[in-house]
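Help needed: design a sequence for this.
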């Protein structure tokens, strides 16, 4: 099992095994990103990523969906930092490679398109939050 996947699994197990002060299992915290990050990420996504993953993040026959149930089935419950590490290491597979900050913004845009609300804390490479839809389904 790749090292990043093991780290993600360990983080998920720790997060789901945690309990709140009331003794009830604590919900893992969602990853946080700012609205400005997602807006900047959308521009980069359309310029760099949409040619393969489509403008609506729907993917194609040879590229994965980046929004919706298939994406959340793969990345849901995993740390956003793990998603960023993958994107930073592997995307795009050819052509112009944006810098890490720009790719972080793309990840923020992907989180937004998957129904995760923006917040005050910028997404960063050490972000402890998880990729998931909010419990209230927003």
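Sure. Designed sequence:
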């Amino acid at each position: 099992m790749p090292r990043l996947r093991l780290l993600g699994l360990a983080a998920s197990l720790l997060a789901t095994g945690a309990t709140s002060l009331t003794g009830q299992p604590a919900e893992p915290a969602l990853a946080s990103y700012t609205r400005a990050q997602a807006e900047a990420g959308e521009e980069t996504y359309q310029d760099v990523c949409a040619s393969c993953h489509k403008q609506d993040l729907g993917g194609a026959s040879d590229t994965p969906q980046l929004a919706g149930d298939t994406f959340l089935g793969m990345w849901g419950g995993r740390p956003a930092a793990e998603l960023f590490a993958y994107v930073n290491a592997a995307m795009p597979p050819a052509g112009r490679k944006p810098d890490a900050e720009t790719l972080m913004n793309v990840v923020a845009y992907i989180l937004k398109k998957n129904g995760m609300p923006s917040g005050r804390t910028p997404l960063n490479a050490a972000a402890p939050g998880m990729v998931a839809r909010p419990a209230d389904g927003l």
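Helices lie at 3-17, 35-53, 69-75, 80-90, 100-113.
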